[in-house]
Write a structure and sequence with these properties.
five-stranded parallel beta sheet, seven-stranded parallel beta sheet, Rossmann fold, 12 strands
């Protein structure tokens, strides 16, 4: 991974600095499982750095100073940071950082980076699997098999179908590459337009309507921000080609659940694979549970045994860029909110 700059990146006006003191925060029950891997991987990349581990705010050494704090978006993160005399950089172990904006700590003083890119492989594989689930009618055949019922039907292909990706970030670009292996047409959105490898057409969200009218599969992988909250609503879905399939691997709140049900009932959507919801866990009385045309998964599309290794790798890539006096590779955008 190399350092890069995007239009959403905050200006990098900090002098280069070495990372010799690292504070790693994690939930206590998870920390015991991760400690050895964190120590091994970071010691190999930064042999002169010391690493302090804390499984709660109370374990953070009061009055200490660190060059870098590595942490998930823990609810007790503000309390942990408040115990420190100084810290220069916070690296989040997640790619999504929407939780931090409601947290009480200064977000303008420290450098903040996130683990963008860790979800590219697992979430794009999930999206391909969801598209195949509906194209090859795996749900139907699973149910038939449980009834020992032999009922054949003609199946469709992904070949030649249009995939429209809302959000051509790391996940969207990984998905585009995999979709091209199935000879699909790929369109997608970017906030700041530029050509994207393996994407046939890149458009602004404001210009998405013509693409929606051609869409066979709509995959949402947008961050949750003020701009994207409730974006995929009934009006948005009504612009889709009838019989499209929705795959939601974004953040709960980007897609409106009631709008999905409405679009399914109207035949605008043939099916939907939903991994995230406005309220999680999904309420037991939600009508989504009982639908044969909906595949529900409990927010697992980004899970992978390689998650921590990749997230630490992103931290190291940022450290190398910062040490060279360049801008961070995966900055948190204060302006964009992600």
């Amino acid at each position: 991974m190399t350092a890069s700059c995007t239009a959403d990146q905050q200006p990098f006006d900090q002098p280069p600095f070495e990372v010799k003191r690292i504070l790693f925060l994690q939930k206590a029950e998870v920390l015991e499982q991760q400690k050895a891997q964190v120590a091994e991987q970071l010691s190999a990349a930064l042999p002169e750095a010391s690493i302090t581990f804390a499984g709660s705010a109370a374990e953070v050494p009061e009055g200490a100073s660190f060059d870098a704090v590595i942490a998930p978006t823990l609810p007790w993160l503000p309390e942990a940071l408040a115990r420190l005399a100084d810290y220069r950089w916070i690296h989040f172990l997640s790619a999504g950082v929407e939780k931090i904006w409601a947290m009480d700590f200064d977000k303008t003083r420290p450098l903040m980076t996130k683990s963008s890119g860790v979800h590219g492989a697992p979430m794009s594989e999930y999206a391909i699997g969801a598209m195949l689930h509906f194209t090859k009618q795996f749900g139907r055949f699973h149910d038939q098999a449980r009834r020992a019922e032999w009922q054949r039907t003609w199946l469709d292909e992904l070949t030649g179908k249009q995939l429209t990706v809302l959000g051509l970030g790391h996940i969207g670009q990984s998905l585009a590459r995999r979709a091209k292996a199935f000879n699909m047409q790929v369109a997608g959105t970017l906030k700041h337009l530029r050509p994207v490898e393996q994407v046939d057409r890149v458009v602004a969200m404001e210009e998405i309507t013509p693409e929606l009218a051609r869409t066979d599969f709509l995959v949402c992988c947008l961050p949750l921000t003020d701009e994207t909250l409730g974006l995929v609503d009934a009006e948005f879905l009504a612009r889709l080609k009838p019989g499209a399939v929705l795959v939601d691997i974004s953040r709960g709140g980007v897609v409106k659940g009631d709008a999905v049900i409405q679009a399914l009932n109207a035949g605008i959507l043939k099916g939907a694979a939903l991994d995230v919801f406005e309220q999680q866990p999904l309420l037991a009385d939600s009508p989504l549970w009982k639908r044969d045309d909906v595949l529900i998964t409990p927010h697992v599309s980004g899970t992978t045994p390689h998650y921590l290794e990749r997230a630490l790798g992103v931290f190291v890539a940022n450290q190398q860029a910062i040490g060279d006096g360049q801008g961070p590779v995966t900055p948190v955008s204060l302006e964009g909110g992600y």
